[in-house]
Amino acid sequence: MAELIEPPPLAVPVCRDPDDDAILALALAAQADLIVSGDDDLLALGHHRDIPIVTPTQALRQIAG
Predict the structure, then answer these.
(1) Coil, strand or helix at 23
(2) Domain coordinates of the chain in residue numbers?
(3) Is residue 45 a contact partner of residue 53, using CB atoms and an 8 Å limit?
(4) What are the pLDDT digits (tens) for 25-62?
């Protein structure tokens, strides 16, 4: 099952790579629990608002809990 979400852009730039702001906007619009990425620019943030940004390994650890 999938849901298409067209998020509005962020009001102000957040990430040092402006293209990654679209990922952050999508995570907010989708009410994501995690952003899983290997992208150094996103990982450098650590989180956006209340959404943690983690590596795949970290995500697997959290899911396996």
Answers:
(1) helix
(2) 33-65
(3) yes
(4) 999 999 999 999 999 999 999 999 999 999 999 999 98
